[in-house]
Amino acid sequence: MSLKILTANHLSGGHVVFLGDDRNWTGDIDAALLAGSPGEIAALQDAGQSGENDNIVVGAYLIDVARDETGKIVPVRLRERLRLNGPSIRPDLGYQGGNWHPGFYQSLYQSI
Amino acid sequence: MDTAMQQVNMYRYDEFDTRFLTERVAQFRDQVARRLSGELTEEQFRPLRLMNGVYLQLHAYMLRVAIPYGTLSSMQIRKLADIADTFDRGYGHFTTRQNIQFNWPALKD
After folding, report:
1. A103 vs B87: CB contact, 8 Å cut-off?
2. To 5 degrees, how large is the angle CA A72–CA A75–CA A78?
3. Do B104 and A100 touch (CB under 8 A)?
4. Sheet-wide strand order for A57-67
5. pTM over 0.90
6. Strand (E) or helix (H) holding B48
């Protein structure tokens, strides 16, 4: 059974978000709502559409995920792993580097 | 400011330039507000933001700022640095096209 989660960009902040267990949008992939069956997948897509309609996120789409050897959820495609972990070149300038401007933290707490 | 510019023999904005920029900025500010409120959909907003150098990329929005003739006064570059500190992650990216790009701005900013 292939697992999928829904990802998007936060409309106001621009950062990568996932649809969470509680149907809110979170930056934490471990809290992402997993879908396996067609019904669950359709429900994810509906939630993505309503997130876009409510102007919380932009560009919601499904991605394939799998569990790694420790059981953690990781995206299958390299593109999505880069989106999750930040740039692989100059990580000091990416998500991983910290030093976020105040607006970023604000947008995280606004609607997540 | 004018004196410093004259000494360096830099390009200066004339009245037309200044007025055009002011109007364009006001127009885009309004478009962004309407996007955030939902009055504009992403499909409607996309061509507008692209005309103003706002791209939505893998990790975040990206703002491309065009630098006329690739020339900056000290004052201008300090202001760009302030913007990077306040609204981005403390750095800017100078491109091969002599633009500067900010890689992590928030749309609302």
Report:
1. yes
2. 130
3. yes
4. A25-26, A16-19, A3-10, A57-67, A73-75
5. no
6. helix B42-51
